Amino acid sequence: MDVSQAGAYTLVARVASGGAGGTLHLEADAADLSGAVVVPGTGGWQSWQDVEATVELAAGVQVLRLCADTDGFNLDYLELSAAGTDPADPPVDDPWIELVSPNGGEVLYAGTVVVIEFEANVIDNVEILYSTEPGLYAMVEPSLLGSQPGWERYEWTVPDTPSTACTVVVASYSGYGISDESDGTFEIRTVSDGDGDGMDDDWENATFGDLTHDATTDADEFLAGTDPLIADAEAFMGSPALSCANRASKRRGTSIVSVWLLALALLVESGCRARRARR
Which domains does the chain have, with CATH numbers? Predict the structure, then answer.
């Protein structure tokens, strides 16, 4: 790079580590400029954060090398700016991702279809992963393009990997190093269908209050992740009230519309309970 003026510069490295982290340093002409820069464990291989160091650079063209002293971390990008100044201004439309659901507290059943819902700004290509234990992720969708209709509502067939410590991550596919993960853990359960009607017995009891509802349409709604007590229901995560509460809490700021949606969801939930009581 061509350094216009000698002096102190701030090095910013965007890093992530699902393990214990590691160290890195910046050098020029085999001389260590930064000393060991510690990369902490960030809680996930796509959970990004910045680490910084101050370096002294000479004026003129020079080759800088970023050296990983240990493994155990991912690197997304580097920034160098004159010390005491901010890096280059970000784009006017700042890129971000917000995962709406599943966002923690849900119970999902293996083989059912649920919706991974998220919102994204500027970003037009994401990958989706899920975890059944901290630091261990499996791919759900390697490249989801924003040009696909309804791309922010991805239908996921829940795998038979029972765990109470599950999370979902939606991450930018390239360029930004931005991701969002479930705020809390959710549970994946293997279906237990003792009466052979195509529905999990615990789910059937919780939904209807007994195991006598053997209609094919009820089993279809169980597999589709919809609520058989709501006409023409869309797939949801947990109760309708929980789904809307997740959406409201994940958005930036609280709006009148968000509050209205949450109130409507609570009314729907109350109506469901009343219908269950009358059955």
Answer: 2-82 (2.60.120.260), 93-190 (2.60.40.10)
pLDDT tens, position by position, 107-145:
999 888 999 999 998 888 999 999 999 888 999 999 888
109 closest CA partner among 226, 257, 3 = 226
Q: Encoding tokens for residue 117? A: 């819902």
pTM of the model: 0.48
β-strand pairing of 153-157 with 163-172: unpaired
Alpha-carbon distance 43 to 134, whole Å?
7
DSSP 145-175: ETTSTTTTEEEEE--S--EEEEEEEEEESSS
Label the pairing between strands 7-17 and 74-82.
antiparallel
